[in-house]
Amino acid sequence: MDAGDFKDTNERVTPKKVPQKKRSSSKPSERVSAAPFPPVGLITRAEWGADESKRFTISGDESSPPQFFSAQAITVHHTDTSNEDINPAATVRAIYEYHAVSNDWGDIGYHFLIDSQGNIYEGRYSGTDSVPAHDTQGRIVTGFHTIGFNPGNIGIALVGDFSRESPSPKMQRSLTELTASLAKKHSIDPLSSVDYRNPVTHRVKRTYAIAGHRDWISTDCPGLNAYLDLSQVREKAARLAA
What we know:
This protein is α/β, with parallel strands linked by helices. It has a single domain, classed as Peptidoglycan recognition protein-like (Lysozyme-like, 3-Layer(aba) Sandwich). It contains 4 helices and 9 strands. The chain has a 5-stranded mixed beta sheet, with helices on one face. Strands 1-5 form a two-stranded antiparallel ribbon. The protein has a two-stranded antiparallel ribbon with strand order 7-8. A hairpin with a 5-residue loop joins strand 3 and strand 4. Helix 3 packs across helix 4. The longest helix has 18 residues. The radius of gyration is 17 Å and the shape is globular.
């Protein structure tokens, strides 16, 4: 996606009352080697300024009501936006507008986004409990990030373009810790391959448990440099999740 496609707008419809998740009660001093989930310091939808009206139709109904399935895999993307981003929260809002309104996906497609400073943003809306991207049974909300392979597939987007540049050390560390915590939560072996089965269409694909977008379909995403980093991410995540 081209950065020019994203515009941070404030157009609204009148939605039904939308309760918000509470920020995790974890404190920075509680950080341990096995990265906690939800991540410490997670930037919630309310904190990055999600206009929840964008998830609703003019009649006040959710455009894309949440659906939940057991997590099977984790997929890494890049947003193909500027690497000199002085306001990543505005970029997240613009991606939200593009996905929810322009693409008519009803919400942002990713479950989480990570900026160059390592900040992690809550993505797709999943309800009112305190666990982002999940329901009370621990299932993952279905995103819109890997066509044909979305249910049970956790999408993490690196904010920037990593075709020629590499993710910053802070971004890499947050990606590793987030994938480790999700792998531990869902009993996913970061070093393994999985036989992903779409629970809706029953389509099957064998790929990495922690994959790049290009492992699923024909695309350059998440950029060559971010993709080449994934082998290290898997190894480090495996140690953290052990």
